[in-house]
């Protein structure tokens, strides 16, 4: 099964159920028993308040059914959504039909964005980057972003704590069902961004699986952590990146060797 086929309607319904339970009481998921709940909108609203978007337009990469559109509407953004899944885009078109804040919805992969250079004031890739070929996707995010535009990016680090059972279980479960999953060598990615001349505005690191939803973070990069949220200002032209991600985390590889 290729990536595009994977993001079918059954995944759409699954992810909607994960999001629907995010604002309810309790820390554990009922959709995936024992797992941490996914984050609710408060996490993103916190970041956008501390690090405001540029006025104008936002490209939501991996927009799904428009989960983040209500947040972007509050920020008075003109919204364009793109997703590799036809089912996701069809759902977004249905839910936001006639909404003048949504300027366009497109079916396309993150690595081949159908937009000209420097089109958007902001680009957001939230809870999606780990399902992309990251070096190629990051190049595209910066390519379509205006100079001085803002990039908001979340992902999974390639080395988390050995005793983070929730993270290990999630990675093993994803592998069993062939879920596209890529872990970032975050230091390597940041080095390349800085070498290009891009400006890292803020970095948030979430030590363990579940900490993202609790807003439990540190701003100094630990040796090991599970997730990150980066805010980057484009200051230079986008250039190709060397690969900086892997389909298996270092932690999982070590565990497999025991």
Automatic annotation (TrEMBL):
CDD domains in UniProt: AdoMet_MTases (cd02440)
Pfam (any one): Methyltransf_11
Coiled coil feature spans: none
Domain Methyltransferase type, residue spans: 59-152
Chain segments carrying region Disordered: 239-258
Bias type Low complexity, positions: 239-250
SUPFAM superfamilies xref list: S-adenosyl-L-methionine-dependent methyltransferases
Matching InterPro entries: Methyltransf_11, Methyltransf_Superfamily, SAM-dependent_MTases_sf
Domain of life where this protein originates: Bacteria
Record GO terms (molecular function): S-adenosylmethionine-dependent methyltransferase activity
Record PANTHER family: METHYLTRANSFERASE
Protein name, UniProt field: Methyltransferase type 11 domain-containing protein
